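Continuing the series of single-chain predictions for the mutant panel. This is the parent chain; the variants come on the following pages.
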Amino acid sequence: MELAEAQHGFVHRSQILALGISPGSIRHRRDRGRLHEVFPAVFAVGHTAPTPLGPPTAALLYAYYDTALSHAIAASLWGMITSPPPEVTLTVMRRLRSRPGLRVHQVPALDPRDVRLCHGLPVTAPARTLIDLAADASTPTLAQALNEARVLGLVTDAELHEALKRAPGRTGTQRLRAVLADEQGPVLTRSEGERKLRRLIARAELPMPVFNIWLHGHLVDALWTEAKVVVEVDGYRVHGPRAAFEHDRRRDQRLAAEGFLVLRITWRQLEEEPLAVVGRLAQALARRA
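Parent structure:
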């Protein structure tokens, strides 16, 4: 059925009836396994293993109108998180029951600025998605999703603050504000990072690396030459432009291809987890010796 193909393998009962297929024929197809009911009045056509966009499409067909994909499923569709969630979440502007595999959030209204199309599906806009995600996700997951959204060019800080103003009572608003405020901590310069790392290595009596050295066309922060271990000290706010992000990843991949182990350490780890940093460095050096 062409309609099902266009909707990632799913159709609504009303759509089948509109094609001239009778209720009895629908029941017959269901009983013969040609239609599989996944939500009330929503059927998978001829399959039980949907494509990645299948479950969110089925959820939208179930809700039918005044709805948008939201929370973790929206973050997954935007590319802010890598693993799709086990259930689909919808934000709806009317009463609708949650179902197995489907969680429903009811709101009085959604501002048009808070809904966009992603893969052809109505999805909460990236800024609103981060607010909703903040209600459920751990702080590290939220911070990573925020970083990815910036790297991908999905959201600006101005858009985030405007979205926060539009959702003062949302559960995730306070947590997202806290993550944004936490980012105002210091950002290390190369020299500051080197000094902190040098002092930490000296106190731990580890072999001292060479600092700020060119390696296969790249300037690296610290290098243990014999062990072929490289350390890069990142400031906490690593969400720079996409080109810089891609450059850093290409550099890491090239060095890995040459047999180097690249470890990235943040200023917060240097400040708050020095023993863990030392332990990881010592372990890496021992294994590469």
